[in-house]
Amino acid sequence: MYMTTKISEVIACIEQMAPLAYQESWDNSGVQVGDMSQEVKAVLLCVDITEATLNEAIERGANLVISHHPLIFKGIKKLIGRNYIERVIIKAIQHNIVLYSAHTNMDKCMGGVNFRIAQKLGLKNIRVLAPEENYLYKIVTYVPQSHIEQVRQAMWSAGAGTIGNYDCCSYSSEGNGTFRAQVGCNPFVGEIDKLHTEPELRLEMIVPKDKSGRVVAAIHTAHPYEEPAIDIVPLSNDYEQLGLGCIGELEQPITETAMLHYIKDKLNVQYIRHTQTSDRLVERVALCGGSGAEFIPHAIREKAGVYITADVKYHDFFNTENQIVIADIGHFESEQCIKEVFYEQISKNFINFAILMAECDKSPVEYSYLVED
Description:
- By secondary structure, this protein is α/β, with parallel strands linked by helices.
- Helix content is 28%, strand content 29%.
- It has helices spanning 7-17, 51-59, 84-94, 104-108, 113-120, 148-157, 212-222, 256-267, 296-301, 314-318, 331-335, 338-347; strands spanning 30-33, 42-46, 64-67, 98-101, 124-132, 136-144, 171-180, 195-208, 230-235, 239-255, 273-274, 281-291, 306-310, 325-328, 354-357.
- The strands form three sheets. It has a six-stranded mixed β-sheet with strand order 5-10-12-13-14-11. A five-stranded mixed β-sheet has the order 1-4-3-2-15, with helices on both faces.
- Helix 2 (51-59) links the parallel strand 2 and strand 3 (64-67).
- Helix 6 runs antiparallel to helix 7 (212-222).
- It starts with 6 loop residues before the first helix and ends in a 16-residue tail after the last strand.
């Protein structure tokens, strides 16, 4: 029997790894154009959606294009083909092609762009360079002893209770709750219009923001009370499982100069803009795909010998004061591995359609050495 897959299912697969809630506030990840309810014919993967990319999708029979960079960032008031963005939108609609992007949400997730770069470099002990701030909640509820395990399991299943590499984390303490049911209530314990004291357990867990709604819903479903007390407390703790950039250690230390050749080889780049190098040994490497100059202080603070990123401004090279080697490998070049990440995430979940790498996908930046005739 032939199994079909809807485009919405493929998108859900990507967002299982990189939820849209992860993206930066200025970003525009998600569906840009098209009807997600249609069946997938083929998927084309790319870094950027351009006219050439869309033409390739049409020629190769793909009706879903997944890119890293969103085609649309600003509001569009007219669609009259004045620029390549408008022309791509018009043509995608005409050919019933869905355009989808996973940008900063894929930059920040575990296993995303930065982790793939780190893996290509053979780093070990890989961790997030700049963990997300203000992304964690503590959710607290109060449960009678008879239902404590039921509620605890429900919260875990909804995504609560993970701290670092540990899951099923929770804390409970004994106490007494008081309440008086009003007319029209259907209390689990106690009587209408009588003050009741009930031995309860305070149950609390850490929850990332994107899972908090599901956890609250799970409490309501599993809790025996009509109106369970639920506290949602924002935390200032860093969320070590989410954030921009990565840092890790090389298997064997190498010199700064040798490290540039190593980067060129492992990341398949032709040109590197960099600060001065020496024979100092590099053991720890920090990186951030795309425009990551703002995290140079993080790399220095973590005592990295080299920081790999892109779009570094002239004066940023001065500001390192020889504490670290900055290696700017180019924006496209630093993120081209995203296509591998997309491919693996989709192919391990679906086998009934073609997954294509865009052949025309390339950086808009050209490098030339000009010499006198």
